[in-house]
Amino acid sequence: MGKLSFLAGAAVGYVLGARAGVQRYEQIKALSNKVWTSDPVQQQVEKEEAARTQLAPTVADAVSTAAKATADKLRSEKTVPSEAVEPTMEARVETAEAIHEGDPLEPPAPTTTAP
């Protein structure tokens, strides 16, 4: 795969740097298309694609297993007593409503003090 990438990069570099014009570009394009569609190249592409397809479920299972193991380990190390648990969303909303009574765009009502 490394040689193919190098050759592709070299061809792109040559095309971009060539001053021979459109005719030379079309020549290079036709040659690269011929190489890409050749049987040996396509057989290798199919092999690599088949290997990826067969390997994907195994990799996904390994990642899933590792993630579950890590989560279980973190959960077992970080146990929290029930008193330390944050209040529920309902309690947070009630607290917020009590703090923000009235229209936030209105200035606060003036307070009167006794003389």
The fraction of residues assigned to DSSP E strands is under 5%
Structural class: mainly alpha
Radius of gyration: 34 Å
Number of helices: 4
Low-confidence stretches: none
Largest sheet: none
From the spread of the alpha carbons, the general shape counts as: elongated
The termini sit apart by 90 Å
Global mean pLDDT = 75
The percent range for helix content is over 70%
Number of strands: 0
H-E order: HHHH
Protein described:
The chain is mainly α and 115 residues long. The protein has a domain at 1-57. The chain contains 4 helices and no strands. It has helices at residues 2-17, 22-36, 39-77, 89-99. The chain is elongated and about 90 Å long.
Notable characteristics:
single chain, mainly alpha
Short description:
With 115 residues, the protein is mostly helical.
